[in-house]
Structures are given as C-alpha cells and as structure tokens.
Amino acid sequence: MDFVRDWVEKSPYAAALGVKLTSLSEESAAFLLPFSETNANPGGALHGGVYASLSSIGGHTLARAALGEASGPWHTIGFQINYLAAAINEDVLGEARLLRRGKELCFVEVTTHTKDGKPTGHATLAMRGRMGMPPAAMVKSPVDDGATEVSPMGKMMGGVNFIASRGLKAVQMADSRARMIMPDIEANRDLKGGHHEGAVLALLDTCGAMAAWAETGPGPYKASTAAIQAQLHKPQPVGELVAYAKVVNRDTEIFWSHVDVAEKQSGDLIAQGTVLYRIVR
Description:
Elements: H1 2-10, H2 12-17, E1 20-24, E2 28-33, H3 48-67, E3 74-83, E4 92-101, E5 105-114, E6 119-129, H4 152-157, H5 161-165, E7 169-174, E8 177-182, H6 197-216, E9 222-232, E10 241-250, E11 254-263, E12 269-280
Antiparallel strand pairs: 1-2, 2-4, 3-6, 3-9, 4-5, 5-6, 7-8, 8-10, 9-12, 10-11, 11-12
C-alpha cells in the first residue's frame, strides 16, 4: 500500500492542507486533518472546499487500494457531499469505507467529524480506475460572455485564508454569476502533476458560493455550503483552470448554483456540478 500512502501524504495539495493517513486497508481508511488557519474562513470555520477535498482523498485512497496500482489513472465520476455542521478552530477526522468494488468502479462513503465526535460532513463517491486507457476526448466548455465586473465583496473574498492559499481569483462576480481562475501552482497539484482533484472541487465550491453572493450582495448574513453534487470528467487537468457559475434557482435562503470547470488553454470541460449554498439573515 506504499503507493497509496505516498499519494495521500506527498501530493503537494494534500501536503499543503496537512492531511495525514492514520490507517489503511483495502476496505477502509482513516485521516487526520489538523486545524490550520490557511484552511479556514473568517472566524476559524473550515472552508467547505476542504471537506470536499478530504472526501475526494478518501475516495481515491480506497479506489487505489482496492483496484491496485496498475488500475489508474483514477477519477471521481460521481460526487455528493452534505455539510452537517462546521468545525471551528479544531482538528477534523475523516473515515472512508468501501461500499462495493467492481472491475473498474469503486463506491465509497466518507464521513468527517471533530475529535469530540460532532459529525461535520457525509459524502458518497463513485470512483473509476481507467485501467491504463488513453485520455478520452473531452467536450469543450460553454463560452462565457467575457464580463469582468467584480463587486467589492468579490475582491474582499480574495483575502480569505483558504481562497488566498489556493491562489483563487474572481474575475467576474455580478448579476448572479461568477467566474474564477485557479492558477497552476505547486500547492494545487497532484503527486504526478496536474491539478489535484480536491483542488478542483474546492474551486467548484468556491465559485458556486461566489455566484450566490453575486445575487444577494453584502449584508448582515450568515452563509455556508449545504451540499454539492459534482462529476469530474478528466484525471489531473493541467494548466490554469477557469470555473463559471450561475445561480439557476433560489428560494428564500437556498441558492442552486450550476458550475462548469474547464482547462483554460484547451477549453476542455473537466468538471461540472451544483453547489447548494445557504444565505440567511
């Protein structure tokens, strides 16, 4: 299992988060994520993208362990996470459990909780090992309208610890839409190059939240991600990434933001999903 442990702890993105693998078998794994201000929102609450990242790491860990080293490259074809509670200024523990193994697919459940047992997240993932197959032809991302208006709130959010540590930049945030760039930097990479899947999910989550804020504007609100559904089409996308988000529906407090993520240079659509974001007074 050394190749799995090396991937978990030596991937630049996971190392930047501080993820530690504490136990591993072909059917289960456990993780420790010590509290770090670089992973937090204002007030010390763990950023939603970090929970998504830890869940992705759990899914990959068990898919790699169950299917074997020759089964890669791997990616998540189906992802669902529900956010149960916030971890504030405290360590988080993660537990991954293999639900079923097929010839090239693995289905995994990942839960996270604080050290005192408070549940914080619940995710299910459908993982795929491509068994050495060459990359598939990708469809191209829808072309955005090129708008570059960024509200003062969007510029302010660039200073949030986790967003800043990923190098994320809002290049549009207005009229219920957002567009964000994720740079190709070491702290966002997988062990063998390209972007770590956890970083892609963090970009998707953040851009979806930005679109919701672009509809409400600033105010005396409390906000958090309630859930994410996503699909990742391509392992380890390369170069600068761009995410496009648009609020497609809302009620009094829940915003449904559709998000597309693409490689900026190739235009390949490499991930898409829906961020359910909650903003309340």
